[in-house]
Amino acid sequence: METYEAVLEALGDRTRRQIVSCLRAGPLSVGELAAAMPVSRPAVSQHLTVLRHSGLVSYEELGTRNVYRLDLAGLTELRTWLDGFWEVALDHYARRVREDAEGGGAVPRQRHEIGRAHV
Description:
Mean pLDDT: 86
Largest sheet: 3 strands, antiparallel
Strand order of the largest sheet: 1-3-2
Distance between the termini: 48 Å
Structural class: alpha+beta
Strand content: 15-25%
Helix content: 55-70%
Low-confidence stretches: none
Number of strands: 5
């Protein structure tokens, strides 16, 4: 399942984020990853399974070793979701610039009372 929710959930775990960071430098076997992690090799394998199901990593069998690498395609859904925030913000900004240029966008700032100070 390659959705932004699956990617966020997978990256919500510190060990999985560490695995992704290690794989940024290049492909590694499960044993190599386990040697760099504070968890057991079976635990690393379980984390890799979650990362694989979220689309963040893929692997290749090389003899008796599974070599994992980042699969950046898994970030596509997350990137699209995050880009949506920028699109909304930029649309609001562009609208405000147009309104200001037309002279209709000046909204008076109200003073808000915070405790005893005025902002």
